[in-house]
What we know:
Strand 1, helix 1 and strand 2 form a beta-alpha-beta unit. The protein has two domains: 165 residues, D-Maltodextrin-Binding Protein, domain 2 (3-Layer(aba) Sandwich), CATH 3.40.190.10; 201 residues, D-Maltodextrin-Binding Protein, domain 2. It contains 19 helices and twelve strands. By secondary structure, the chain is an alpha/beta fold.
Amino acid sequence: MFLAGGCKSDRSTVLKVYNWSDYIDESAIPEFEQWYQEQTGEKVKVIYQTFDINETMLSKIERGKEDFDVVCPSDYIIERMLQNDLLLPLNRDFGDTPNYIDENLSPYVRAQFDKIDGAGKNANDYAVGFMWGTTGILYNAKYVTDEEASTWDVICNEKFRDRIFIKDSPRDVYSQIILYLHQKDIEEGRVTADQLMRYTSDEDIAAVETYMKRVKELVAGWEADFGKDQMTQELGWVNLTWSGDGVWAIEEAKEVGVDLRYVCPKEGFTVWFDGWVIPKYAKNIKAANYWINFMSRPDIVIRNVDVTGYVSVSGAPEVMEAFVDEDLDPIDVSYFFGPSATSVRLDPVLYPDKETIARSTMEHDWGSHTADLVSMWSRVKGNSMNISTILVLAVLVIAIILLILSRMRKSSRRSNKYSGKNARRRR
Length: 427
């Protein structure tokens, strides 16, 4: 979208938002414009643009000095932007307008943002979380037992040769495997999961590379988005993936009698976050702060979750109640929603229980070691494509065509809730 008159237009009446594709209920945009005028007496027009890769967004701001007013990067990019002095502090003083940010932000998310390395700056002063999720194992209970799936070593189990799909995401894979390789050190208290997220030495990279080259012999495919479809078609039995993809696949598979499950392995796992920030070159800082506040309003949160399928960082009681499912067993989510939420019927894939989340950690920016990570990943994957992968891809093409036709017939049946579009958001 472009402004009539170009860049010389009065930016005090324009808010430029740069966000992931399919990441809000876009019908809320004109509502924000009206709400902003009601709260401030000022008019604003939102210019809404989207990106699909963190680095694309960062490059436009860092090199081109684009004057976006508010953007939504992932955790490690927030860290990088803080370290490179590319963010402005947030203003939470909205006068007579309620501060939905501080009223509703989950204490768990606030604590996680405290762990972001901001080069002396606290990320909570510069960023407000938007959505979050976990990395884990999606598996077919017909072929894989709960015990087998409970460890990251399931991706190196000979029983599942050519039935394993791995996210083509070096950061996410590396983080899980470094946790697995140091499981004894964690158990015996010699290192913590948080400390392991800083293990980027040549020796550590080499250890993960060695392990993943063993895994490579069993892998049917490295995937960015098609793994969940392979799982629903029973072409895959094990998938290292994200929670949103897991929920989507579980729901789709249930309709055709396939029992898929998702677990966060016992050795530990990572959580990820996306959050709103105001870039250094923003022009409409006031409207940007109001946008973040509006996106934190419970009714807007619920709509965004319903439409996009992601899980909000909001700990508001209205949000919790909106996603209670009486068909589920109660779990302890007090870490996220507060002390009264010790027995709530929520989907544990989307909201891991308190005992499970205790095993989690958060990734960090690799900084100068990023090139080493990318090089390692290239060596692991190599250039070869085995026969199984070729066959899988051929079947995938056919499956996608059939799936599209099927969804066209039933598009009016299924809501977008928990649609699992996470593949586009990561590394």
